[in-house]
Amino acid sequence: MEExxxxxxxxxxxxxxxxDSGESNMANLKNHLKxxxxxxxxxxxxxxxxxxxxxxxxxxNGNSWSLSLK
Length: 70
What we know:
By secondary structure, the chain is of the alpha+beta class. Helix content is 60%, strand content 20%. A three-stranded antiparallel sheet has the order 1-3-2. A hairpin with a 2-residue loop joins strand 2 and strand 3.
């Protein structure tokens, strides 16, 4: 369990660094995480982590979601 929490935290950091350079849609975000060794399940958990910590904004644009830092 502790290893999974560390993995989610590392993925959250990866997302945060990506969003630090600007807004991203979910497809780009998931591709970025995949390139860095994270699967889509961890991606969603990391997004939840950042949302719970009130670090990100999520906006629905048609059928897709965009994320940015607050």
